[in-house]
Amino acid sequence: MSAAHDDGHGHGPATAELPPGVKLAPGNPEQSWVEKLYLPEVAKGLNNTFKHIFRKKFTIDYDQTDRDNPAKFHRPREGYRGEHYLKKDEEGHVKCVACFMCAAACPAECIHIEAEATPTDWNNRERYPRRFEIDMLRCIYCGMCEEACPVDAIALSTTYNRVADTREAKVYDRDKLMKTGEDLGISLSKHKYRPDGVPGAIPHKKAH
Protein backbone atom coordinates (compact mmCIF):
# COMPACT_ATOMS: atom_id res chain seq x y z
CA MET A 1 0.00 0.00 0.00
CA SER A 2 1.27 3.48 -0.77
CA ALA A 3 0.39 7.03 0.16
CA ALA A 4 0.78 10.16 -1.96
CA HIS A 5 2.30 13.36 -0.57
CA ASP A 6 4.19 16.41 -1.80
CA ASP A 7 7.93 15.82 -1.95
CA GLY A 8 8.60 19.42 -0.83
CA HIS A 9 10.48 20.46 -3.98
CA GLY A 10 7.52 21.54 -6.11
CA HIS A 11 7.50 18.40 -8.21
CA GLY A 12 4.01 17.34 -7.16
CA PRO A 13 2.96 14.34 -5.14
CA ALA A 14 5.41 11.56 -4.45
CA THR A 15 4.66 8.00 -3.45
CA ALA A 16 5.90 6.57 -0.13
CA GLU A 17 5.62 2.94 0.77
CA LEU A 18 3.93 2.19 4.09
CA PRO A 19 5.00 -0.74 6.24
CA PRO A 20 2.88 -3.89 5.94
CA GLY A 21 -0.32 -3.69 8.00
CA VAL A 22 -0.18 0.11 8.43
CA LYS A 23 -3.16 2.08 7.18
CA LEU A 24 -3.69 5.80 6.98
CA ALA A 25 -6.33 7.20 9.32
CA PRO A 26 -9.30 8.71 7.49
CA GLY A 27 -9.46 12.49 7.48
CA ASN A 28 -11.92 14.28 9.73
CA PRO A 29 -15.02 15.28 7.73
CA GLU A 30 -16.09 18.87 8.00
CA GLN A 31 -18.76 19.43 10.65
CA SER A 32 -22.18 20.64 9.69
CA TRP A 33 -23.63 23.81 11.19
CA VAL A 34 -25.81 21.71 13.50
CA GLU A 35 -22.81 19.80 14.84
CA LYS A 36 -20.92 23.02 15.35
CA LEU A 37 -23.64 24.15 17.79
CA TYR A 38 -22.77 21.15 20.03
CA LEU A 39 -26.34 21.17 21.34
CA PRO A 40 -27.24 17.74 19.91
CA GLU A 41 -24.15 16.20 21.53
CA VAL A 42 -24.94 17.86 24.85
CA ALA A 43 -28.50 16.52 24.64
CA LYS A 44 -27.16 13.01 23.97
CA GLY A 45 -24.92 13.21 27.03
CA LEU A 46 -27.70 14.47 29.30
CA ASN A 47 -30.01 11.75 28.03
CA ASN A 48 -27.44 9.11 28.99
CA THR A 49 -27.05 10.70 32.44
CA PHE A 50 -30.79 10.78 33.14
CA LYS A 51 -31.12 7.14 32.14
CA HIS A 52 -28.63 6.13 34.86
CA ILE A 53 -30.36 8.18 37.58
CA PHE A 54 -33.23 5.74 37.88
CA ARG A 55 -31.15 2.59 37.66
CA LYS A 56 -29.90 0.53 40.60
CA LYS A 57 -26.84 2.03 42.27
CA PHE A 58 -23.68 -0.06 42.44
CA THR A 59 -21.72 2.23 44.77
CA ILE A 60 -21.49 1.68 48.54
CA ASP A 61 -21.62 4.47 51.11
CA TYR A 62 -19.25 3.53 53.93
CA ASP A 63 -20.63 5.68 56.74
CA GLN A 64 -18.38 3.92 59.33
CA THR A 65 -21.33 3.25 61.65
CA ASP A 66 -20.95 -0.52 62.05
CA ARG A 67 -17.42 -1.99 62.06
CA ASP A 68 -18.77 -5.56 61.70
CA ASN A 69 -20.90 -4.77 58.64
CA PRO A 70 -18.89 -4.85 55.37
CA ALA A 71 -21.53 -2.62 53.73
CA LYS A 72 -20.97 0.08 56.36
CA PHE A 73 -17.31 -0.17 57.29
CA HIS A 74 -14.66 -0.78 54.66
CA ARG A 75 -11.73 -2.98 55.61
CA PRO A 76 -8.73 -2.81 53.28
CA ARG A 77 -6.87 -5.94 52.30
CA GLU A 78 -4.52 -7.57 54.77
CA GLY A 79 -1.15 -5.86 54.82
CA TYR A 80 -2.44 -2.42 53.81
CA ARG A 81 -0.30 0.33 55.34
CA GLY A 82 -2.44 3.24 56.50
CA GLU A 83 -2.48 5.69 59.41
CA HIS A 84 0.26 5.29 62.04
CA TYR A 85 -0.36 4.73 65.73
CA LEU A 86 1.71 4.34 68.89
CA LYS A 87 1.23 1.43 71.24
CA LYS A 88 1.28 1.35 75.03
CA ASP A 89 2.42 -1.15 77.65
CA GLU A 90 0.42 -2.96 80.32
CA GLU A 91 0.62 0.07 82.62
CA GLY A 92 -0.83 2.42 80.00
CA HIS A 93 2.44 4.22 79.25
CA VAL A 94 3.66 4.87 75.74
CA LYS A 95 5.65 1.84 74.64
CA CYS A 96 8.34 3.84 72.83
CA VAL A 97 11.80 3.90 74.46
CA ALA A 98 13.07 6.86 72.40
CA CYS A 99 15.83 4.88 70.70
CA PHE A 100 15.46 6.92 67.47
CA MET A 101 15.67 3.79 65.31
CA CYS A 102 12.42 4.59 63.51
CA ALA A 103 13.57 8.13 62.77
CA ALA A 104 16.90 6.83 61.49
CA ALA A 105 15.23 4.24 59.24
CA CYS A 106 12.65 6.67 57.81
CA PRO A 107 13.61 7.49 54.18
CA ALA A 108 11.34 10.54 54.16
CA GLU A 109 12.77 11.93 57.43
CA CYS A 110 9.29 12.73 58.69
CA ILE A 111 9.65 11.43 62.27
CA HIS A 112 10.87 13.82 64.97
CA ILE A 113 11.60 12.62 68.50
CA GLU A 114 12.80 14.36 71.65
CA ALA A 115 13.82 11.98 74.43
CA GLU A 116 13.50 12.52 78.16
CA ALA A 117 14.29 10.51 81.26
CA THR A 118 11.36 8.45 82.48
CA PRO A 119 9.59 9.33 85.73
CA THR A 120 10.85 7.63 88.86
CA ASP A 121 7.91 5.20 88.97
CA TRP A 122 8.75 3.77 85.53
CA ASN A 123 11.11 0.91 86.35
CA ASN A 124 11.21 -0.89 83.01
CA ARG A 125 13.24 1.61 80.95
CA GLU A 126 15.33 4.75 81.13
CA ARG A 127 13.86 7.02 78.44
CA TYR A 128 10.57 7.82 76.79
CA PRO A 129 9.62 10.31 74.05
CA ARG A 130 8.74 13.69 75.46
CA ARG A 131 7.93 14.69 71.90
CA PHE A 132 7.02 12.30 69.10
CA GLU A 133 5.73 13.75 65.83
CA ILE A 134 5.14 12.37 62.34
CA ASP A 135 4.66 14.71 59.40
CA MET A 136 2.09 12.73 57.44
CA LEU A 137 2.44 15.00 54.41
CA ARG A 138 6.01 13.79 53.97
CA CYS A 139 5.41 10.17 54.95
CA ILE A 140 5.47 7.62 52.12
CA TYR A 141 3.85 4.82 54.17
CA CYS A 142 6.71 2.41 53.53
CA GLY A 143 6.48 0.73 56.94
CA MET A 144 10.21 1.04 57.66
CA CYS A 145 9.52 2.62 61.06
CA GLU A 146 7.45 -0.38 62.08
CA GLU A 147 10.17 -2.79 60.95
CA ALA A 148 12.93 -0.88 62.73
CA CYS A 149 11.25 -0.56 66.13
CA PRO A 150 12.81 -3.01 68.64
CA VAL A 151 9.93 -2.84 71.15
CA ASP A 152 6.86 -2.98 68.86
CA ALA A 153 5.90 0.60 69.77
CA ILE A 154 4.82 1.95 66.38
CA ALA A 155 2.73 0.35 63.67
CA LEU A 156 0.64 1.17 60.62
CA SER A 157 -3.08 0.50 60.78
CA THR A 158 -5.50 -0.34 57.99
CA THR A 159 -7.18 3.07 58.32
CA TYR A 160 -7.09 5.14 55.14
CA ASN A 161 -5.45 8.55 55.17
CA ARG A 162 -7.58 11.12 56.93
CA VAL A 163 -8.37 14.44 55.29
CA ALA A 164 -7.36 17.68 57.02
CA ASP A 165 -8.07 21.36 56.40
CA THR A 166 -4.60 22.61 57.34
CA ARG A 167 -1.02 21.39 57.04
CA GLU A 168 -0.60 21.61 60.80
CA ALA A 169 -3.39 19.08 61.31
CA LYS A 170 -1.38 16.47 59.39
CA VAL A 171 1.48 16.62 61.88
CA TYR A 172 0.53 13.90 64.36
CA ASP A 173 1.92 14.24 67.87
CA ARG A 174 2.40 11.56 70.52
CA ASP A 175 -1.07 11.88 72.08
CA LYS A 176 -2.84 11.75 68.72
CA LEU A 177 -0.87 8.69 67.65
CA MET A 178 -1.72 6.91 70.90
CA LYS A 179 -5.40 7.83 70.63
CA THR A 180 -5.54 6.34 67.14
CA GLY A 181 -4.47 2.98 68.52
CA GLU A 182 -6.96 3.24 71.37
CA ASP A 183 -9.83 4.06 69.04
CA LEU A 184 -8.98 1.05 66.87
CA GLY A 185 -8.63 -1.23 69.90
CA ILE A 186 -5.10 -2.30 68.94
CA SER A 187 -2.98 -0.07 71.15
CA LEU A 188 -1.58 -2.74 73.50
CA SER A 189 1.90 -3.87 72.46
CA LYS A 190 2.72 -7.58 72.43
CA HIS A 191 6.34 -6.85 73.26
CA LYS A 192 7.68 -7.63 76.74
CA TYR A 193 10.60 -5.68 78.17
CA ARG A 194 13.72 -7.66 78.90
CA PRO A 195 14.64 -8.03 82.58
CA ASP A 196 18.08 -6.56 81.88
CA GLY A 197 16.55 -3.37 80.44
CA VAL A 198 17.98 -3.89 76.93
CA PRO A 199 15.53 -2.89 74.16
CA GLY A 200 14.29 -5.83 72.13
CA ALA A 201 12.30 -8.98 72.58
CA ILE A 202 12.84 -11.34 75.51
CA PRO A 203 15.36 -13.96 74.37
CA HIS A 204 14.00 -17.46 74.09
CA LYS A 205 15.53 -20.18 76.22
CA LYS A 206 17.73 -22.53 74.25
CA ALA A 207 16.74 -26.16 74.25
CA HIS A 208 19.43 -28.43 75.67
Report the principal-axis shape: elongated
Number of helices: 5
Order of helices and strands: EEHHEHEEHEEH
- Overall helicity: 10-25%
Distance between the termini: 83 Å
Rg, Å, rounded: 31 Å
Q: Which oligomerization state do the chains in this entry correspond to?
A: single chain
Number of DSSP-assigned strands: 7
- Order of strands, main sheet, comes to 4-5-7
> Which regions contain 5 or more consecutive residues with pLDDT less than 50?
199-204
**Averaged pLDDT, please?**
80
Which structural class do the helices and strands define? alpha+beta
* Biggest sheet overview: 3 strands, antiparallel
Strand content: 15-25%
Question: What do these coordinates show?
Answer:
This protein is an alpha+beta fold and 208 residues long. It is elongated, with a radius of gyration of 31 Å. Strand 1 (2-6) and strand 2 (13-17) form a beta hairpin. Mean pLDDT is 80; it is low at 199-204. It is 20% helix and 16% strand. It has a 3-stranded antiparallel β-sheet. A two-stranded antiparallel ribbon has the order 1-2. It has a two-stranded antiparallel ribbon with strand order 3-6. It has helices at residues 33-37, 39-53, 101-105, 144-148, 174-184, and strands spanning 2-6, 13-17, 84-86, 111-117, 127-135, 154-156, 171-172.
Brief sketch in words of this structure:
By secondary structure, the protein is of the alpha+beta class. It contains 5 helices and 7 strands, in the order ββααβαββαββα.
Could you outline the blueprint of secondary structure elements for this entry?
Blueprint: E1 2-6, E2 13-17, H1 33-37, H2 39-53, E3 84-86, H3 101-105, E4 111-117, E5 127-135, H4 144-148, E6 154-156, E7 171-172, H5 174-184
Antiparallel strand pairs: 1-2, 3-6, 4-5, 5-7
